[in-house]
Amino acid sequence: MSIVIAVDGTAASGKGTLAKKLAKHFGFPHLDSGALYRLTALGVLEAGGDPANEADAVKAARAVDYARSADPAIRPDAVGAMASKVAAIPAVRQALFEFQHRFVETPPEGAPGAVVDGRDIGTVIAPDATAKLFVDASPAVRAHRRWLELKSMGIERLEADLEAELVARDAQDRSRAVSPLCQAEDADLLDTSNLGIDAAFAAALALVEPKVKGQLEAKPRG
Ligand code: CDP
Description:
By secondary structure, the chain is an alpha/beta fold.
């Protein structure tokens, strides 16, 4: 069994940044599962389809190419909101399940483990994950971080609008029938409201490292 670090959490909570840093620390590949839903939303848009239409959304999900996950076109919050819509369609989640499952079962390049961030990693994709974090922060702090991130990409938005959108997206993600956003029973909660990136990473590492070390020692590399 591979080592899996599941990093779930609310929108713009910093889970992606933490997941990337954890992946670098342990030398494991990182999967940004949110990018799969964002790419699905973008695919629907590019095809001139309707994100609420199941057939359009499933077609786009089946055509997702994770190699495009760094495409800045998937980052605007309008795409995030649309991603949350397609993510509520069970057949879309089903279409994206296999790729994620393979990533955690057999991490790329023979790595002994993987770090995956998202909403349902510790609950659905990897319920037996080695370590599970649930990352959260106050809506105001998350809106400020998203504002800074968008500003660095040349996108000017009002912080109050971003906060309202994040709260609405979390509500939608928490209330969907299939794979809702929720903290797994055995996940550690990490509230980063008062933590900068370095402090948040130190806190994450303190929670995760003992578990990963234990499994690395039990599992010979190769
Ligand atoms: O970066 P941010 O937290 O804003 O969002 P993201 O992780 O890129 O996810 C975008 C949307 O995809 C979320 O609002 C969820 O609706 C959906 N998603 C999901 O349903 N399951 C996942 N494992 C990851 C994302």
